[in-house]
Design brief:
The chain is α+β, with helices and mostly antiparallel strands and about 375 residues long. It has six helices and nine strands; from the N terminus they run αββααββββαβαββα. It starts with 16 loop residues before the first helix and ends in a 13-residue tail after the last helix.
């Protein structure tokens, strides 16, 4: 029987062009579908790490209190005598020299309690200014200011554009509570200043008038300032000295002073070096308040612009404006992580009622808020 050569011919191996293009199209479609999900998973992981960082900071604060019986100061600074700079003559502050007595921000004092005593022990606290000249690690491998501490860095925030001399990034601040950063005259004197008084000429800044009001609308409980040993409405306060008499100003509060309850008081939250010049200097620098934030500024208030216009209201949105840059803010959408006194970390919405937010920052204003109110 003759063999049919047509039946025994093998089909050539490989893909046709149409099949190859179809496979490529399917792969591209799958990537397009999965990529946003992968990015969301990555951001979720970064947010978890950011949350855990604040939990570690909260644990460190409690451990510090267990040892010292008080909370650490937000910063320790001192300035030379200057009559023009005595509060409330705020208009003379531009004539005064900066602090020369700098013993560090709260992030320095917490080092032994986040398992970094080796860095803390390398700091020469006998120096009037621990920042100048720059001090080095015990092995002299690098300046202490340049040490990168993961506990102080939120992985969601990008800082590459604003690296200053390699300083270790700072993404978290302790809370001064509903502390008004506005000066008597609206702080127009400085090229970075913005008006927070809410006058007719400052419509953009009118949203900030809540922090300068003595009594909230509707006749509800007024905010109490200068409470406790730290003379601050919030959990933390700056420790400094009167630049004429040398008398100490401020101090450190103990847990006994939190009459509103630790679970009802904000201890710390996020910041962004891109939007806060003080935080941009890193975790090691005192900067007369570096490491401090206020609940007197809305969460995620936009202070990320880098261009100042002298005498302009738009300066409320620049990173060098002390009036607005010290608000808590994050690289996360919709709000930021906030640490409460009981160690709880919550993601607080940027749309939170501002009087509720302000009261959560106060440790002894007599207002105990239900957790479902924010």
């Amino acid at each position: 029987m003759l063999e049919n050569k047509y039946f025994n011919r093998r089909r050539p191996s490989g893909f046709t062009l149409i099949e190859l293009l179809t496979v490529i199209a399917i792969i591209a479609l799958l990537i397009a579908i999965l990529l946003p999900a992968v990015q969301q998973v990555r951001e979720a992981a970064r947010r978890i790490q950011c949350r855990n960082n604040l939990k570690q900071i909260g644990l460190a604060i409690h451990n510090y209190h267990d040892v010292m019986n008080v909370l650490p100061p937000a910063s320790i600074t001192g300035s030379p005598p200057c009559a023009a700079c005595v509060y409330p003559n705020a208009s003379g502050c531009s004539e005064c020299p900066g602090p020369v007595f700098r013993k560090g921000p709260v992030t320095v004092f917490l080092l032994p309690y986040i398992d970094l005593a080796v860095i803390y022990n390398a700091i020469d606290f006998n120096a009037a200014n621990i920042e100048s000249p720059l001090q080095f690690t015990l092995d002299n491998s690098q300046p202490i200011a340049n040490v990168k501490i993961k506990t102080y860095q939120c992985p969601s925030d990008s800082y590459e554009k604003f690296i200053w001399n390699g300083y270790g990034r700072l993404n978290y601040m302790t809370s001064l509570g509903p502390y008004s950063m506005a000066s008597n005259h609206g702080n127009w004197a400085s090229s970075c200043g913005c008006d927070m008084t809410g006058t007719a000429a400052s419509t953009l800044a009118a949203a900030l008038t809540i922090y300068t009001e003595a009594t909230p609308p509707g006749g509800s409980q007024a905010l109490r300032t200068n409470t406790g040993s730290n003379r601050s409405p919030g959990a933390f306060g700056n420790l400094t000295w009167n630049n004429l008499t040398g008398a100490p100003i401020g101090g450190c509060s103990s847990f006994a002073e939190f009459s509103d309850g630790l679970s009802n008081t904000i201890f710390a939250g996020e910041t962004r070096p891109t939007c806060n010049n003080a935080a941009r200097s890193g975790w090691y620098f005192t900067s007369n308040g570096c490491g401090s934030g206020t609940t007197g500024i809305p969460i995620n208030w936009d202070s990320c612009d880098q261009v100042t216009v002298p005498g302009s209201e738009t300066n409320c949105n620049v990173s060098c404006s002390a009036n607005t840059s010290y608000g808590f803010k994050s690289a996360h959408k919709g709000g930021c992580h906030i640490l409460f006194g009981d160690g709880r970390v919550a993601f607080v919405s940027e749309s939170i009622d501002m009087w509720t937010y302000a009261k959560l920052g106060a440790k002894a204003d007599g207002c105990v808020l239900e957790t479902d109110s924010f």
